[in-house]
Amino acid sequence: MKKNSTKLFDQTFLKFDAQTLQKFAIPIAVLVLIIALSTPALANYNFAGYPVTTRTSGTVSGGVFIDYVPGAEDTQTGSFNVPTGNIKWAYLYTGIWGGTNRYEGWVNVTFNGDYTNNNLGPIWIRGQNDTNPNVWGSGCGKHWMYYNVTNLTNAGSTNSATVSKINATDPGGQFDGDPYGIVLVVVYEGGDNPKDLRYWINDGSDGLNYISPHDAGTTYFNGALDTNKVMDANLTMVHLTAYNPTVSNGLEFNGNVLDTSMINTDAFDLHSWDITGYMESSGNDAWYTRCGDYPSCTIPQSDGYINICNAILVLDNSPPDLNVTAIYVNPDYNTGHRELFANETNTINATIKNLDPNNNSKAFNVSFEIEGVNIGEVPVSGLAAGASTNVSINWTPSSGGTLLSPVYYTLNVTADCDGEVTETDEANNASTTRHKVYNNGYKGKRYTGGNDIDTVQMDTINGNLLYSKGNSTYQRGAAGGGSWTSYTVHWTSGNLSVPVNATVKKARLYVYYCWDSDTTGINASMDFNNHVFSMDDLDAHYKDVKGYGYYYDHKSGTMVYNVTDYFNNVSGNTATLTKVVPNTNVAIFGMVLVVIYEDTSESQRVMWINEECDLLDALGPGSNLGNIGVNETEATAYALFNGTIDSSKVEAATLITVVPAGDSGPGNEDRLYFNTGQWDNVWNGAEGQNVSICEVDVKGLLQSDSNFAKIQSRGDYLTATNAFLVVEYKQDAPDLVVTDKWVCWPVNCTICYNVTNMGTITAAAGHNTTLYVDENRIVNDTVPVALAPGASYIGCFNHAWTYTTPEDNITVCADSNNNVDEKSDEGNNCLTNKWKCGDGDNSGGITTGDSTQIFNYILHGSVHYPIDNLWAADVNGGGTISTGDSTQIFNYILHGPVQYPLTCKCCT
């Protein structure tokens, strides 16, 4: 079957065979009588077709059933399973292709076996001459037929329809007679799942074509309506033949383009669109076109012929029942960590359900309120009957608490917060919950309003800082406290080797604990070298806790004792921690004893002592699998070392960090930063049961002020407790440096020198300066005067130096007899140069640069063009610097030393 094809003949005649007459049991005389009695008053043919208008509309508490079968050759049968209910209205539609508007023929239409009632049965399709009241004829042989089958439709059962060609009646027998398809539309009351519907059933056969031309049409759905009550809206369109070529924008509803690209088979098509969001309170319409480029409507961008036969609009006004059934916080976190945390982005998830099992909901918004303040709304495009959906929003609270001091927030979630949906129960849309917001203790305290690892002491003294954890080992706690009652650590005199003549300025004892399950906190006494400290005697007590429920929410801490007066540098030290209440559960990581001593014989050092207790654990993105709401950036503790440093005087700088439970695995699980430097996997305790200490050289990373360190977890559970920075300055001492040496030219060949005290203390007189030639010690010269800081002495060696070709290595060393204690600056006493006749610029070779230098020296003077070694520039031994020397060097380079030898005054 081809649409819009043209047949060759235009003759009309009747053709009935015996079999046909027998099949329908219609005497030919009756047929002739029917034809004779037919009146031409209803001329149901129009090349441009008939507008699609409303045949029926209304409301129903039930359903609108729409079903179809596509076309076939000669005979088409369709089965339609009509739902239960009381049939209110039913129409059967079918189409016949005649071939052209001149061809005629008979077809038969039956419904549920009936072909005698409701205009069913044989029908003579007469093309452009058709007068059948239920046929719309258009174009080149398109015929769309309709039948009122309300009384013939059976609810709750299968209904069948058949359309078949009987014969052609045009003289050439060219009538095609193929069915386009069959459509059944039923409106029924009640049924198994009744809905409150409003409907418009529009029909016609609008023959869009390029001949007339007739390029577009509009069908209307008149009447006012309350769009708030429209839960769903569906538009169904029947295309007698689909688009060829494809037209993707051939339909609009209230000006909104609907995709028609799927209607592209060049055959009969029925399709529905969800237009819920496009409904207006009145004046609703559907506009359609045959053109892909309307209004140009050029070929091949457009289809030459398109018939629109039905436009059915069904609105579901059945009210749903929206409800908030559940509220979850941070659902992506690991189980047990799904809490609300301060100073981070939290996900609040709500489950919205349509409690009505039968009625869909249109689009609506869900609001989230914290303490009565709307923090955002989330749109939901719609919710089917009985369906649920999850919506979420992010929220960052500015403050939080702990288990012992919680901070509460009231959360309200409301479905359809803007009242866009009419519901059966408007009073059950909201759900209110009360949540604790915690400070996540696994973050650095900087991120939860706490303290950094702050400086408690900064000293600038001649002395040093020592530390040791003695024989500390991890002491496990146990339920009921049965694992230990007292815990003892020993330090030998060798663990902390304070010089005999030094004075102990500070001694601090650190005790690191964890797993403290007592509600009031740890309670223990400390015996240090037979002096007992109570909890009230603590110099400082730093604490941290995960801060929220579930597992492992035990307190950790750093207890600090000032034991300066009781430190024993001779026989060692002993510390014993004893539980005041034995039956308590607490574990001890270990102890660290730190000593600062003063000794005038040592270098000056600046020392910072920083203390805290900061639990860190990053198991989120970028680290190990899982998520506890902390990433490595947040799992960072900071230690600041404020104070000015004289960078020019720094001899050494060391950063010492103490990290209980630090135990980097095979991955990149922890990181230490100092200013711009970083080190990975630096704390390597045993299975998190050790006090890990890392010491790194940071001299090259020092800043003059505002130095800082960062301790970071990248997958390792650890506790940041201490950061010690020790910066050592160079000691005050003389520093003798030979800054220059030269030959007394042209007077003689004596070598002279300049020695300068670059140190901070006066160098006494009497130290020697020594001359070496090619590493051979030649002669000493004694400096007869004391040199104050910055002062210089010029001397000359009592030796007439004789240059030997091709070059001499000349070295002059200050304090060669080591009379002056220069501390750490003994390595800069000597100055060495390679001297060569002709190498006036001391470049290490004889080049045209030396010739040019001499020429410019003569032309412009020594201010602009100085010569480093005047003796080496006097290559002709004349005792002066002249153009002859410049020429001699040039020829030496050009012609060689045989013809042009270089003979300096100091040469043999």
Can you describe this structure?
The protein has 908 residues and is mainly β. It is 5% helix and 44% strand. It is built from five helices and 49 strands. It has a nine-stranded antiparallel sheet with strand order 6-7-3-9-1-10-17-12-15, with no helix packed on it. β45 and β46 (776-782) form a beta hairpin. α3 packs antiparallel against α5. The longest helix has 13 residues, at 848-860. The chain is elongated. The chain starts with 17 loop residues before the first helix and ends in a 13-residue tail after the last helix.
Q: How many strands in all?
A: 49
Instruction: Note the overall shape.
Output: elongated
Approximately what portion of the residues adopt beta-strand conformation?
Answer: 35-45%
* Mean pLDDT reading: 89
What does the largest sheet look like?
Answer: 9 strands, antiparallel
Number of helical segments with 4 or more residues: 5
Strand arrangement across the biggest beta sheet? 6-7-3-9-1-10-17-12-15
Radius of gyration: 52 Å
- Cα(first) to Cα(last) distance is 123 Å
Name the structural class: mainly beta
Helix content: under 10%
Q: What ranges have pLDDT less than 50 throughout 5 or more consecutive residues?
A: 1-43, 620-625
